[in-house]
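User: Some background: our group keeps a shared notebook of sequences we're curious about, and every so often someone picks one and asks for a predicted structure to add to the entry. Today it's my turn. The entry only has the sequence so far, pasted here. Could you supply the structure so I can complete it?
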Amino acid sequence: MLACVSIIFMLFLINGIFRGAGDATLAMRTLWLANIINIVLDPCLINGWRPFPKLGVVGAAVGTATGRGIGVAFQLWMLLSARGRVVVRRTDLKLNLDVLLRLARVSASGMMQFLVSTASWLGLGRIIAVFGAAALAGYTIAIRIIIFAILPSWGMANAAATLVGQNLGAGKSDRAERSVWITGFYNMLFLGGVAIVFIAFAERLIGIFATDPEVLRYGTSCLRWVSYGYVFYAYGMVMVQAFNGAGDTVTPTLINLFCYWLWQIPMAYPLSRILGFGPTGVFAAIAISESTLAVVSMVVFRRGRWKQQKT
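Assistant: Of course. Here's the predicted structure to add to the notebook entry:
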């Protein structure tokens, strides 16, 4: 298990290097390779299809580790063979404490961003669980659909981070800022279209995964409420990644801390429990807090302090 986790970390770490160098295509090819091998091996090793041994649940771990491991091997080959934009030579393989300390400083607040957002989703799940298994199941299904649908948006947000880093490195801060606003606009168009589909066909989409009337009702409500803020989310995720691309990981961490822990959770509880809106109050709190995050991020981004960030 630890070996699998280490391989996954390496996979995403090196892909971050490729994206930072502006070669997102190579990062995508690596993930395609790793995931295709994983998808093929998992059923073979789980079910014991000849000539593979039947390993059961362990087969899933072996298939995942093998696919990810081959992906990492491909990444290392690209880094060491001078076939990509980034080339690692033997002379580069030395300990640099100054670089390590800077990386630790930047990554520490970056980890806090994920901790804050992940903990907030767990907190919301705990509040919803009070209203029964059907409410929690509907919420979980809706969130899974939402996460799947916004994956292209995260790709655009990561692209914005790369553009910011490259343009700031080239001393072109105005072009960095312009690229972020353009990316946010296109992301808004995409998520706006997704929101229309989700609002119009929420019940049918939830119905693919649930047949219980109560689960269907709660899932439909969650999907629609969260979709109301999609236009704001489009800019919010781009702005947060833009700060990260500039090396300013502290600002988005503070914004996340305020919008999630000091705004979303304290709002979700009274709306659902005290005011009697039930799970709908939690769904509304998600839309309001995510929209708040987007507005705050845009205001802070426009001030431009990220342009003077030194890492």
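Suggested note for the entry: Residues 197 and 227 are 9 Å apart (CA to CA). The first helix runs from residue 2 to 20.
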